[in-house]
Write a structure and sequence with these properties.
With 368 residues, this protein is an alpha+beta fold. The strands form two sheets. It has a four-stranded antiparallel sheet with strand order 4-3-6-5, sandwiched between helices. A three-stranded antiparallel sheet has the order 2-1-7. The longest helix is centred in the last third of the chain and has 31 residues. The radius of gyration is 25 Å and the shape is globular.
Length: 368
């Protein structure tokens, strides 16, 4: 995926958020063996996909051509899902009440913490779950029905695809490690040839993991004084003054960073750990933040650093020199990655075979 107008993505997302008439909710975008796939369902799936890829590959999603491709991919995913549901029903795969209850518990577990990582009381977690159902346009009965179908499809895949996979050989894992290491050495940020977008994203993530093992690293603690998006000069000056006053206290006694971070930092997650952000490698943090972090001596206190979220005061806790990545420490993760890659390819072939036997009609032009 490549560049273009960032407003194309925004326009697409806004068009999905607009109210839809009662008539449009009955429109379909496809049918599988006579079973319709509704426009409303398609819109919800596309909205989620746009949000995910806008975060995962923001540069790529500025290209309207990629947004169009994502629309088409989303439709195919819905068709694939329906194909699997129907095959599961055909094979009379049983979904027990216990399966559904376990699935509900697993999903609700994701609502036990808020975006900052704070654990929520049970009633707040349940309210967040119910709010998500409302956002998705589902009542509880519809949610259970959808979950039952998803479990059926998962059981089908377990029987027909996962059960037939083999673990990668040691030689395959080592060869892939060499491939990843060569990619890192090339300093490329592009998807390697022969990989589709999803495989390319996964490959770059595993490459980032290997790169982190061998890169120079700094362990950093920070105190954040937030500013709101589009903050006025007055708000920024007030935040900067607060940060400068905190720095004066720290310069007097740097050993108090942990306690002062817990008291003053406006980043709840790191504040709970005394400001500790863990280890950073180059290319992850904002440029100015990174520049100071890698140049600051261990134990010293930085001047306030402005980033888009506010003013940061940092202290370097530890530094690690660059070293050669250790195959033995990454081989298990690489083996899992290759196993998942094999699973994706086998699943794609299995679904393709099912689609070849089905009657599929597409009417996506009704919403373009």
């Amino acid at each position: 995926m490549r560049n273009s107008n960032r407003w194309a993505v925004l326009a697409a997302a806004l068009s999905l958020a607009a109210p839809v008439s009662a008539k449009l909710l009955e429109d379909t975008v496809a049918s599988v063996n006579g079973k319709p796939i509704l426009l409303s369902e398609y819109q919800k799936e596309l909205s989620s996909a746009l949000d995910y890829w806008a975060k995962a590959e923001p540069d790529a999603m500025r290209d309207p051509g990629n947004v169009k491709k994502l629309r088409e991919t989303t439709l195919e995913e819905l068709i694939n899902r329906e194909i699997l549901y129907q095959e599961g029903e055909k094979r009379k795969i049983k979904v027990r009440e216990r399966d559904i209850e376990n699935g509900i518990a697993e999903i609700k577990q994701r609502f036990m913490r808020d975006e900052s990582g704070r654990e929520l009381p049970p009633e707040e977690a349940e309210a967040a779950f119910q709010k998500q159902l409302k956002t998705d346009g589902l009542n509880y009965s519809q949610f259970r029905e959808r979950l039952s179908k998803q479990i059926m499809a998962r059981k089908l895949i377990d029987e027909e695809v996962k059960a037939k996979l083999r673990q990668p050989e040691e030689a395959e894992v080592k060869a892939y490690f060499v491939k990843v290491s060569s990619y890192i050495a090339s300093k490329s940020t592009d998807t390697p040839r022969g990989m589709d977008e999803e495989e390319g994203l996964a490959f770059r993530q595993i490459a980032q993991q290997v790169r982190a093992m061998g890169s120079e690293q700094v362990r950093v603690a920070r105190i954040l004084i937030k500013t709101s998006p589009g903050a006025s000069d007055k708000e920024k000056k007030r935040a900067l003054k607060t940060a400068q006053d905190i720095r004066k206290r720290l310069v007097t006694d740097p050993s108090q960073f942990d306690e002062i971070a817990k008291e003053e930092s406006e980043d709840p997650d790191s504040a709970a750990r005394g400001g500790d952000l863990g280890y950073l490698i180059r290319g992850v943090a904002p440029a100015q933040f990174e520049k100071v972090a890698f140049s600051l001596p261990v134990g010293e206190i930085s001047e306030p650093i402005e980033t888009e979220v506010g003013y940061n005061i940092i202290q370097v806790l530890e530094k690690k020199a660059a070293k050669k990545p250790d195959y033995d420490k990454i081989k298990d993760d690489l083996a899992k990655f290759l196993m998942n890659l094999s699973f994706q390819k086998e699943l794609e072939a299995y679904v393709k075979n099912l689609k070849a036997k089905a009657v599929i009609e597409r009417s996506l032009t009704t919403i373009q």
